[in-house]
Amino acid sequence: MAKNKVVSFIFLIALYCEASYTDSISERCVQNHDSLEEAFENSCFFGRFRANSFFWNWKENSSKNRDNSAAGVGGSLLFKSGYFKGIGATIGLYYTYNPLRPDVEDIGYLKSGKDTFSRKDALVYNRYSITVPAQSFLEYKNGGLSLKVGRFLCDTMLLKANDTKMIPNSFEGFWGSYERSAFSLEMGYILRQKLRDKSDFHDPITYGKDLNNNGILDDGAEIWSGNDDSAAHRGLNEIALQEAGKSVKNRLKVIRFSVNENLGAFAAEFMVVPGLLEYRGVDMAIKKSLRYVDASLGFRYLIQKDIGAGVVAGPNLRQDDRGYVDHRSLDAELFGVKVDLKKDFFKIRLGYTAVADKADFVTPWRGFPTGGYTRAMGQYNWYANTKSYMLRADLDLNGVLIDNGYTFFRYVIQDFDDKKPGVQADSEVFELDFVKRFDSLPGLSTKIRTALVEERGGPGDYLKPNPSYSELRVEVNYRF
Fold first, then answer.
1. What CA–CA distance (Å, rounded) separates 125 from 130?
2. What's the DSSP call for residue 458?
């Protein structure tokens, strides 16, 4: 209770400091100053209040699937200093509280709403809130050079903040970047990660300890203490890694190069989890103005190379290797292509991704392998031998129907391997999103997201649970 009062007091201070936000952030807080006093005098406070609601209804409830709902209220407060001799500091405090406080026996059934609190903290401490400094770093800037040390957010092909709920996904370590004109080079060394539903930082790939007793061990530890993201590999848990002589204090080493010109863009990314996995990815886009529309053709090729993880964990994320070619390898490949056509306030996208019939992709860092190509809300379509087809339509409603309104629709066909019981059945996804902002309160926005997933069926799919469900998300944001 005392901690909640402190958080409330901090947010009241933020409201008092509201005048320091607006456009002055980009002007004052990124400038170099002649003294420490001037640097702190030109510091900024900014942040937001946030509320989220989640409603999930299965078409068929079962012992593993149960209708669920959740809510989150909270927000963030960030302090950013000015720079003195190129050195500045950023601290970001984030808070979320789930007022619905689900019963302990229902926590494991939560789907999208699980990010409104920490399941581990609720289980062990009966705590339904998270208070965490998800950002806390020192930065050195000199022209296009930036060096960060501490806790920060980053955005690459595989690592993302994915800030769509209450608290972003953040990383701890070192991050350096250099930008000049259209050229960008980034290098990172990640020590630990904090998923969105965690109150503390943890190993970036280790799943937890064990899967017995519904994830709860006799000593009180549980799988929710590690990286339990939906794209994590359950076979890379602490006990299995230790038995195989592997580290449970893993690191991520990242190098990314990109060029972004008017006629197109190119990005190449390399990442390694030493002793376990390597990743090599390329993104490319070609842009062209045609007679009636602006067109863009995009490609993605991503390789996951097994350098020790497959022998420990096997090719399937949930350790059901039936239907896989090699039960001791995590080698994987993905190819994606998309076409964008844009005219005034309307844009349409056609996307396709194909995953080779080798192994599933292990990517628990919220950068989705099919993101931007065929991924719809809440979907994980990068299992081995999965093909996906997407149609997306974006409509800017401002000046057309609703001022400051924006909407988009996604329709995805997901063709999973019917002979692999460890992945879901084929499905169709219908998603509709709507965003509204307000001139009278520039910092206020509302977002409604809906999804309907229907089983498509196919030979062998009768062996798999029905993946059909409907989902509704409602979010209110006020930035100050």
1. 12
2. -
Euclidean distance between CA atoms 410 and 453, whole angstroms: 12
Q: Which of 58-72, 171-185, 210-224 has the lowest mean pLDDT?
A: 210-224
Distance CA 395, CA 436 (A): 12
**Per mean pLDDT, which range of 311-325, 423-437, 459-473 is the poorest?**
459-473
Q: How far apart are CA 338 and CA 283, in angstroms?
A: 11
Rounded CA-CA distance 449/317 in Å is 28
pLDDT of 5 above 60: no
Confidence tier at 43 by pLDDT (50, 70, 90): confident
pLDDT of residue 41: 80
Residue 461, φ and ψ in degrees, nearest 5: -70, -15
β-pairing, 83-84 with 32-33?
A: parallel
What pLDDT does 28 receive? Answer: 61
**Does pLDDT of 387 surpass 90?**
yes
User: What integer pLDDT is reported at residue 400 of this predicted model?
Assistant: 76
The gap from C-alpha 177 to its chain's centroid, in whole angstroms, comes to 21
Print burial letters for 102-133: b (CB count within 10 Å at least 16), e (below 16).
Answer: beeeebbbbbbbbbbbbbbbbbeeebbbbbbe
- Which secondary structure element, helix H or strand E, spans residue 392, and what is its range? strand 387-396
pLDDT classification of 16: cutoffs 50, 70, 90: very low
How confident is the model at residue 34, as a pLDDT? 79
| First CA to last CA distance, the chain | 26
User: Over the range 341-365, which residues count as b (16 or more CB within 10 Å of their CB) and which as e?
Assistant: ebeeeebbbebbbbbbbbbbbbbbb
Q: What is the pLDDT of residue 335?
A: 98
DSSP labels for 8-29? Answer: HHHHHHHHHTGGG-TTHHHHHT
CATH entry, 294-428+457-471, from 3.10.20.30, 2.60.120.10, 2.40.160.10, 3.10.180.10 = 2.40.160.10
Quote the tokens at residue 21: 């936000």
Q: Write the DSSP symbol of residue 241.
A: H
Residue with structure tokens 């062990």?
A: 124
